[in-house]
């Protein structure tokens, strides 16, 4: 894939460039702020962007705003956002639109190279990849919502992994159950949450994330 990086830490940025090149990806640009990221995407039209949430000059939400602008102007460009902490408002904003080709990882996950590369490949292929800790904290926001309280422990486990962007087959493997069992749990939890039936992988994740905002 053709990947553009946006990270203000020179050490981390150069390390990611080297890792991606070693994995056979192309890196047409690696920049250190949000404005430069948007300009680089306009020039190179990459397959995917990997961007830090907080970058100069204010180190608040420049990376996220750039990512959202990229999604609006070039919807075919996938976006994988990195953050030092769980930025709930930022995560919700990024996930509140179509999540096909969108990911949100904590920077600690980047240190786990296999997990980072797996997320990159998943997002690059048009799927979703959300850090388990982000999903857990978003789920925690809704512990007072009655529909979620109706879920069984197994259904909550399935919901959490769905929100991470895993397919039914991947969930079955992670939970050591059959795929048909996962499908039954998925159907049950959608009924309990009063969510419309999803017809596609990313729509299913989007429905869950919209629920988490309520």
TrEMBL record:
One of its GO terms (biological process) is phosphorelay signal transduction system. It holds the Pfam family GerE. Residues 144-209 form the HTH luxR-type domain. InterPro entries: CheY-like_superfamily, NreC/VraR/RcsB-like_REC, Sig_transdc_resp-reg_receiver, Tscrpt_reg_LuxR_C, WalR-like. The modification 4-aspartylphosphate is found at residue 52. Residues 2-122 form the Response regulatory domain. GO terms for molecular function: DNA binding. Keywords: DNA-binding, Phosphoprotein, Transcription, Transcription regulation. PANTHER family: TRANSCRIPTIONAL REGULATORY PROTEIN NARL-RELATED (PTHR43214:SF24), TWO-COMPONENT RESPONSE REGULATOR (PTHR43214). This is DNA-binding response regulator. It comes from Nonomuraea glycinis.
């Amino acid at each position: 894939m053709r990947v553009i990086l946006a990270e203000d830490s020179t050490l981390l940025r150069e390390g990611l460039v080297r890792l991606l090149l070693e994995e056979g990806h192309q890196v047409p640009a690696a920049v250190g702020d949000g404005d430069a990221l948007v300009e680089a995407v306009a020039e190179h039209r990459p397959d995917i962007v990997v961007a830090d949430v907080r970058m100069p000059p204010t180190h608040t939400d420049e990376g996220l705003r750039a990512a959202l602008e990229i999604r609006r102007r070039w919807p075919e460009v996938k976006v994988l956002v990195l953050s030092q902490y769980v930025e709930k408002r930022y995560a919700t904003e990024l996930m509140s639109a179509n999540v096909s080709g969108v990911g949100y990882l904590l920077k600690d996950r980047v240190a786990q190279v296999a997990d980072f590369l797996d997320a990159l490949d998943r997002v690059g292929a048009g799927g979703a990849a959300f850090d388990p800790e982000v999903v857990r904290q978003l789920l925690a926001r809704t512990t007072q919502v009655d529909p979620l309280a109706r879920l069984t422990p197994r259904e909550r486990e399935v919901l959490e992994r769905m929100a991470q962007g895993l397919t039914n087959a991947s969930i079955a493997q992670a939970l050591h159950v059959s795929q048909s069992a996962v499908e039954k749990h998925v159907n049950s939890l959608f009924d309990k949450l009063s969510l419309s039936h999803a017809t596609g992988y990313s729509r299913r994740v989007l429905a869950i994330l919209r629920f988490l905002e309520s």
